[in-house]
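Can anyone check this?
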Amino acid sequence: MTTVPANASAAVAPAPGPSLAGSSAFPDAVPARTPGALAQPGRRILLAAPRGYCAGVDRAVDAVEKALAHYGAPIYVRKEIVHNKFVVETLTERGAIFVDETDEVPVGARVVFSAHGVSPAVHAQAAARDLSTIDATCPLVTKVHKEAVRFAGEDFDILLIGHDGHEEVEGTQGEAPEHIQVVNSPDEVDRVVVRDPEKVIWLSQTTLSVDETMETVRRLRERFPALQDPPSDDICYATQNRQVAVKRLAPGTDVVIVVGSANSSNSVRLVEVALESGAGAAYRVDTAAEIDPAWVDGAMTVGVTSGASVPEILVRDVITRLGELGIGEVEEVRTATEDIMFSLPKNLRADLKRAGAQPDRPHRGRRTALTVEPV
């Protein structure tokens, strides 16, 4: 195979559009009324906060954007950088090429590993193809990988609570496949077999439903009383925060609309959490165009939230669309304030510094203060 320089197409790189990073992780306050709303008295939107981008997603998207700007197109990305259709399509338009496997990347090219992480085998494949890699794995996923390596080294059986086929689970399991078995749900607990019931630990995919994960753990502990917990919580702060916010607003809503893609585990979970927490109905949409007016016909209170891989622009579009459907008042329901930010991958940061570019990520300063009214 012919070697392709990593910056071979830099001269024809498309002009960049507005950044998908930064302002989506730290969005400005939402106006108290929807833009151009055909308001009907008493109809309101309860807007969950926190919502949307987590720090790991923001970092991964920013890494692709900065790589495109610095090295030029094409930049290859193994798997979807994050599980959001709009983000992937937008980055594709800007010169990113998404591939399923490392062997689809030309020898010598530059590739970004997605926020979900990869196994050691994928790193080895990239090295064998002389690829320049940018590892955009979320640091919280990396933490789970390190836990897997540690406990495999201590010869534990590791029960990884997660979904078979999800990139994050594949990456974590690849760290120690002979020690790790995946448990998809509480219903699979009775089929788990371990070598030594006294040396068992559970880890989890970071984007799961907190409640379902804890139910799986409860049932595992009934079978294996010596089951150990991970050293720290594996379900990421953002997943938990978004679920808590939905639990707070759902009981007061006729309908909850979750913005997020179908392959986003945390977005799908938010629909389930809304229904379990008392919402009259709940729907997931990729964009505002997917909202069926019949969903909100007669609804007085509509909850809105978004998964951890969703840029804020898509949420604003949903608010605008609801305004067109007669729901004009907006109240933010805040259960936590997030200010976590992760640095760019080390080698990308170093290249930007050498070129005199600004590798820092001062997105926190874009957040504006807001007053939260009680629901």
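Reply from J.R.: I decoded it. Residues 1-15, 363-375 have pLDDT under 50 and may be disordered.
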